[in-house]
Amino acid sequence: MKNITKVISEELILFEQKFAENVRSRSPLLDKIMRFIIRRKGKQMRPMFVFLAAKITGNITNATYRAASLIELLHTATLVHDDVVDDANMRRGFFSINAVWKNKVAVLVGDYLLSKGLLLSLDNNDFNILKIVSNAVKEMSEGELLQIEKTRKLDIKEDVYFDIIRCKTASLLASACSAGAWSATEDQAAADMFRLFGEKIGISFQIKDDLFDYGHDNIGKPTGIDIKEKKMTLPLIYTLQKVDAATKKRIIYIVKNQNTDKSKVQEVIDIVVKSGGIEYAKQKMVAYQEEAIKILRQFPASDARTAMEDLVTYVTERKY
What we know:
Shape: globular
Strand content: under 5%
CATH superfamily: Farnesyl Diphosphate Synthase
Number of strands: 2
Helix content: over 70%
CATH topology: Farnesyl Diphosphate Synthase
Radius of gyration: 20 Å
Structural class: mainly alpha
CATH architecture: Orthogonal Bundle
Largest sheet: 2 strands, antiparallel
Order of helices and strands: HHHHHEEHHHHHHHHHH
Strand order of the largest sheet: 1-2
């Protein structure tokens, strides 16, 4: 990751300063919560995509910093709201906002972050960037609702699965890349190419998350969390298509009715591994990664393009 951030290290430092300014509030409670959020920030992968896309297509501008802030504000807002919905008390090794300040405050904080992002764009006439990111918000909501609907029946087919993750996960990365390119060039063709690039990386990213549930490649013990939460991920969908009717019926029964029984969850994991579900998901993940690289290599070679390729590799090779 250090080699990747080296190309945009100065920009990331300045971005952190600007982001802290953008979330500042007149409310002492909000300011306290914003400082809490900033201290527990993750790798800031999405702002990296914004800055690298801008650098590949042109020059980083003030609009690039605003685009990165908008993406990070939106992403943080969705995480805060997700923790409320999921009743999660921890996020990235820290207590969640709802665990410390309760659900009502957490919902309001998420709303505040979203509104700050919208105003940041509107106050600076970044209308096209706002349009790009607003479309991602719409798609993320549609993806979540489609997943909820299908999880109840456990009848997700592969095409529906890809629709869900394209909306739920890939749309935000796609908008980060597209907004970055637009901020540097105001070239619709470049923005569209980077949207497609980001979408493919986002899908690859989600498949990698699916694989973590099965503890592949010595990344640790299988978690089985997705099975416990009745989430239909690619390895499981593939397995249900390949096994005989009796095994399929048993898997569905366990996922629906015995998903808290560790031994039963392990039984499902073992069937998925044996049926080739893991290998199939890996192949799909790599295929999307390769498609993204092909798009990227249509742009001239540069340090930024090399760093972006390294970031693409990181997405599929990360250990957590």
